[in-house]
Structures are given as structure tokens and as C-alpha cells.
UniProtKB/TrEMBL annotation:
Lineage of the species this protein comes from: Bacteria, Bacillati, Bacillota, Bacilli, Bacillales
Coiled-coil regions listed in the entry: 162-189
Record key words, sorted: Coiled coil, TPR repeat
Repeat region (TPR), residues: 120-153
Pfam families referenced in this protein's UniProt entry, alphabetically: TPR_12 (PF13424)
Domain of life per record: Bacteria
Protein's UniProt name: Tetratricopeptide repeat protein
Length: 212
């Protein structure tokens, strides 16, 4: 079987609202892809993401932990730890998330020291954890570090995401002018990245936050 095609079909079914078909396709993958197969890591990565989309976060963590335990390269270890950090943040396990992102930063420092994009994503995720905790001073500092790195990397999508986070953060503190400026820059960068859906999401957010 073509694992890439099956994974694509599963996510397409899920996004079209046919969760049962998506689950059937992942069950097919489970029966056909074995731990010794070269595609097994790819299958687990997709399965972890599928559980994350379903907000079955405990299952997602189990899958990503299996990925981490089987990781043979720094890249695979980084990827598993990154996802464990995201899922922990989504599950409001903030201390665990911060620990995972600290582990991720250590791997980046050792094995990907010149990769500003990876550094930026790491700082963005960590800053988002602090923002969700309500620790705004720390969040602003870390997100600004992420922004500098994203700008160095020329990552329009990352720049847009960081400005959106800074906009949300300033809105939460009732700094409306600063929030509007960050949302404006977020939309500009999302447009440059071809992310029209993200632009629409910000416009909807603005209509809620800044309603008269």
C-alpha cells in the first residue's frame, strides 16, 4: 500500500467531516505498517497528529512518546519532543510543556545551531505557554526573541503567527493600539505567506475584540 496516499486520504476525510472513514484508514495503516518498516515513523507521526486534531491528547502523547523512544537521529528526537511540548500545552500541562521545549532548545543548540527557523519556532511555542499561563511579561520577552529569529529566517508564516500572539497578548492587557498594530502586521505576513484563512481568522478576532 502507498502510505502517503492513505495518510492524505485519512486527513482529507477527517477535514470533510467523515471521522469514521479517517479512523478506518488509520486502522488499515496500523494493520499494514509494522515497527520494523521504514515508514513506521511516518505512520506514527501522522497518527499522533490525527489524535491531536481530534483533541484526544492522551492518545497523542502516547504516540509521540513512542516516537521519542524509537528516535535514532537528533532530527527525529527533536520532532517528537516538539510535538510532546505542543500537546502538553494544549492539555494545560504547562510545566511539562516548558520542560519539553527546554529539551528541544538543547537539541537545537547542539545539532542545529545555525537554524534560526527552528530556534524561532521553539521560542514561539515557549512564549505561547507563558501567555496561556497569564505570565505576560515573560511571554512578551520570549515572543520578541522569536520574532527576531523569524525575521532573520525570512519566515513570513512564523512572523505572522508571532504578531498574532502578540496581538492577542496586548488585547488581553487592554493595550488596544498595540494589539491592532500587531494584528495588522500579522495579516500582512500571512498574506505574503499565502495564508488567507489565517487572515480571515484574525479579521474575525478583531471584530470580536474591537467591537464598539
Amino acid at each position: 500500500m502507498d502510505i502517503n496516499t492513505t495518510i492524505d486520504q485519512a486527513f482529507e476525510a477527517f477535514h470533510e467531516g467523515d471521522e469514521k472513514e479517517a479512523e478506518r484508514l488509520f486502522a488499515t495503516l496500523k494493520n499494514n505498517v509494522k515497527p520494523e518498516d521504514e515508514d513506521y515513523t511516518q505512520y506514527l507521526s501522522a497518527l499522533g497528529y490525527f489524535y491531536t486534531l481530534k483533541l484526544n491528547l492522551e492518545k497523542a502523547k502516547e504516540v509521540y512518546q513512542r516516537l521519542l523512544e524509537g528516535a535514532e537521529s537528533a532530527e527525529d528526537k527533536y520532532a517528537a519532543i516538539h510535538e510532546l511540548g505542543i500537546v502538553s500545552r494544549m492539555d494545560s500541562e504547562f510545566e511539562a510543556a516548558k520542560d519539553y521545549f527546554a529539551q528541544e532548545a538543547a537539541i537545537i543548540s547542539t545539532d542545529f545551531a545555525d537554524d534560526d527557523l527552528l530556534k524561532s519556532v521553539n521560542r514561539y511555542e515557549l512564549g505561547y505557554v507563558y501567555m496561556q499561563e497569564g505570565k505576560y511579561t515573560e511571554a512578551v520577552q520570549i515572543l520578541k526573541e522569536a520574532l527576531q529569529l523569524a525575521e532573520k529566517a525570512g519566515d513570513a508564516l512564523g512572523i505572522g503567527s508571532i504578531h498574532r500572539a502578540l496581538g492577542e497578548l496586548n488585547a488581553a492587557q487592554d493595550n488596544q493600539n498595540e494589539a491592532k498594530e500587531h494584528f495588522k502586521l500579522a495579516k500582512k505576513n500571512f498574506k505574503n505567506a499565502g495564508e488567507e484563512m489565517s487572515v480571515q481568522e484574525i479579521e474575525m478576532l478583531e471584530s470580536i475584540i474591537f467591537e464598539d
